[in-house]
Amino acid sequence: QVQLVQSGAEVKKPGASVKVSCKATGYPFSPYFLHWVRQAPGQGPEWMGRINPHNGATIIPQKFQHRVTMTCDASVTTAHLVFIWLTSDDAAVYWCAREAEGGYSLDHWGQGTLVTVSS
Amino acid sequence: DIHLTQSPSPLSASVGDRITITCRADQTIHSYLNWYQRRAGEAPKLLIYGASSLASGVPLRFSGSGYGTDFTLTISGLQPEDSAMYYCQQSSGYPWTFGQGTQVE
């Protein structure tokens, strides 16, 4: 069955960077876009962008373009999110999610990675 | 960016009730509207895609409708396990955006 398993919780200081990993199993890795979504306490989910595992092409909103890098390693069916210059506003749960076969929705999600930013 | 507004929130109901959550977009998104359920401590789960198509494994008591700017999620025969946050999400254009959520209690 499709599974997305993420790396564990992180505690970071302001100004630091964080890397969240997402290991995909149970389906062919390359054909399905992977998205990253975060949710801060008390707020709605926020879409951070997506990557095409086939060629590494990304779409990242302008808000995150200078701080976020998304990569994929097809040899180990794993996607990574690197987020730099963290502030307290970046404290959130971060998920990877697979785009559905027909596109336009997210049909499988990782379990989430809690990122805490505290001095 | 396309802004989505959900109502009501919160929503209090009883087991067996029929409830409706509304999601309004500030510009047309055709039928590129999805609904997710998020129970406490869990990842979001896709319920409805393309405004009205039921995702795999989702109970038939969930249904969606709408087109353009106005959409609804209906739960017919509310169950205790339906207590959760519900979010709409548009994929008409980048960046994808979510509504602020509706708490069903």
What does the model show?
The complex is a heterodimer of chains A (119) and B (105). With 119 residues, chain A is an all-beta fold. Helix content of chain A is 0%, strand content 49%. In chain A, strands 2, 4, 5, 6, 9, 10 and 11 form a 7-stranded mixed beta sheet that branches. A 4-stranded antiparallel beta sheet of chain A has the order 1-3-8-7, with no helix packed on it. Chain A starts with a strand and ends with a strand. Chain B is an all-beta fold and 105 residues long. Helix content of chain B is 0%, strand content 48%. Chain B is built from no helices and 10 strands. In chain B, the strands form 2 sheets. In chain B, strands 3, 4, 5, 8, 9 and 10 form a 6-stranded antiparallel beta sheet that branches. A 4-stranded antiparallel beta sheet of chain B has the order 1-2-7-6, with no helix packed on it. The radius of gyration of chain B is 13 Å and the shape is globular. The model of chain B has no long low-confidence stretch (mean pLDDT 95). Classes of the chains: A mainly beta (119), B mainly beta (105). At the A-B interface, strand 5 and strand 10 of A face strand 4 and strand 9 of B.
Note the topology:
The complex is a heterodimer of chains A (119) and B (105).
Chain A: E1 3-6, E2 10-12, E3 18-25, E4 34-39, E5 46-51, E6 58-59, E7 68-73, E8 78-83, E9 92-99, E10 106-109, E11 113-117
Parallel strand pairs in A: 2-11
Antiparallel strand pairs in A: 1-3, 3-8, 4-5, 4-9, 5-6, 7-8, 9-10, 9-11
Chain B: E1 4-7, E2 18-25, E3 33-38, E4 45-49, E5 53-54, E6 62-67, E7 70-76, E8 84-90, E9 97-98, E10 102-104
Antiparallel strand pairs in B: 1-2, 2-7, 3-4, 3-8, 4-5, 6-7, 8-9, 8-10
Q: For the largest interface in this structure, which chains are involved and how many residues does each contribute?
A: A-B, 24 and 22 residues
Let me know the number of strands of chain B: 10
Helix/strand/pairing class of chain A, anyone? mainly beta
Instruction: Compute the CA-based radius of gyration of chain B.
Output: 13 Å
Ends apart, CA distance between termini of chain A = 40 Å
Tally of helical runs of chain B = 0
Structural class of chain B: mainly beta
Order of secondary-structure elements of chain A = EEEEEEEEEEE
Distance between the termini of chain B: 30 Å
Q: On the 0-100 scale, what is the average pLDDT of chain A?
A: 96
**Morphology of chain B:** globular
